[in-house]
Task: structure prediction
Amino acid sequence: MSYLKSSIGLKSYDWSSVDLLKSLTPESISGSRDIIKSRQEYFWHDMGSEFDSKHFLIYLMNRSDLQLSDDFLEFVCLWHLDEQNHYRGLRKINSVLYGFREDDIDKEIKSRRPEFEAVSSFMVDEFTILASIAFDEITSTRAYKQDFKLFDNLGPDCLSVWIRNATKDEAAHYDNAMKLLKKNHSSRFDELPAILGKIVGFETSDGFRYNNTFIFDHDTDDFSNELLNDSKNTILEAFGREK
Ligand SMILES: [Fe+2]
Ligand SMILES: [Fe+2]
Result:
């Protein structure tokens, strides 16, 4: 663990997907082909979302109307490094499990364009953005935890380590977002129940679809209504607010 990079003690872990998975080959996979096939769409979804942190970062930096604090900029830079490390890991994993070339995956993933229109009402200012990120990251943490058994059953130890490292990073992103909310935005905590309720309403609405924005990517059945409500309630409990 390292706290050295950030002046306010933001958590970040130093590890490399490329190093960790360098000896992963298709021959090393011993898991059930049927299960691997059934999870193809989910592996691809998660990989795309991790890559889309770049879209989200560029969107935030281009929003000249936002007054983003130095703390937030440090937070988002550390976060982006981690998410791109996760993308490179899932790119290798998708390549090994499904026989794609990593270059071809890159081309396909990079050809997609984000559409922020539907999520812009949550991206009002630093406070609502941090609340949205906290919700997103606690949900990612729990969704990746659901995948531990799946990864363990694929065979190679490096995959078990990878999913646990990625989960630890997602938990650190959640902790860091909560730290910034507590440090700089405590005067607005009364707004949290409405904001989080609106996020859950949005993600569970008919026709909800993910548009390559990184944020609010919970449009597969990996993300149950129960999981989304638990995320909301966990944040409200952390701030001592009524659910
Ligand atoms: Fe991630
Ligand atoms: Fe994350």
